[in-house]
Every structure is written in structure tokens, then in C-alpha cells.
Amino acid sequence: MENDGTDASSRSLFQKIQSMTVSEKLDLARKASKEARTILLRDSNRLVQLAVLASPKITESEILSIAGNRQINDDVLRQIAMNREWLRNYQIRLSLVSNPKTPLSIAMAQLSYLNQRDLSALSKSKGVARPIATAAQTRLKEVKK
Fold this sequence. Notes:
The protein is an all-alpha fold. The protein is built from eleven helices and no strands.
């Protein structure tokens, strides 16, 4: 039975986390493994999701996948946008702009940092808010002048 240990252990980790109180989840978020952080990000409580971002163990690649996650709470996206260190990563900026859940003001602020190719893709994208696509078209015209 223990042969498929990864599947069984992740299931039991999920069950353990589900049975925790919010304060236990907040403590776990600070010192959790990547797998536990991924489970905690799906928690319905936004305080737990925000605690995961505050974890000293969180990596830029995890932040990138969170920024692109369309099911994530917009407060989490707002928190990512407020972190200058994470915004140094171009892919994180692009993921924030491309994510329809990102608050409009934050997505608009990041547009000026994007390159022509990505602006062009955004201007034609049906997956972003209409004002973002329009602003990307406008920005593209400005850059080409």
C-alpha cells in the first residue's frame, strides 16, 4: 500500500490541512513545504493565502504561477504587485497583466513595462479585460511612433 507514497502522502497532507484551524494554517504557511503552500493557496480564507506569500521559503517560480492563476483572490494579486522584488521579474509583470482577476489599476500600471510583442498579443487577447486590450493597443501605437 505504501508504494504510491507520494499520492497517499499528498492526500493525507491535504486532509491534515483541511482539519486545521485558521491560526494553525497561518503558522503552517510560514514554514510549509512547497506542496503544503500549494494546498494552502487554495484555502478559501484570504488571510491564509496572503500568509503563504509572506513565507520566507516562497520562490519566484511559485509567485509566477500564483500571478497567472485565474482562481486566486485579487487581494493576493494586489500583494504580489506591491512587492518590488517580485516585479523585477518580467514574467510576473506579464502574468499580472494577463490575469483577468488582477485589479484594473494594477494591470494598467504594469502595461508600460511590457515589450511590443506582448503588448500586441494583449491587444488581440480575448482573455483580458477590454480596457487592458484597448490600453495595450494605445501603448503599442505610442511605442511605434
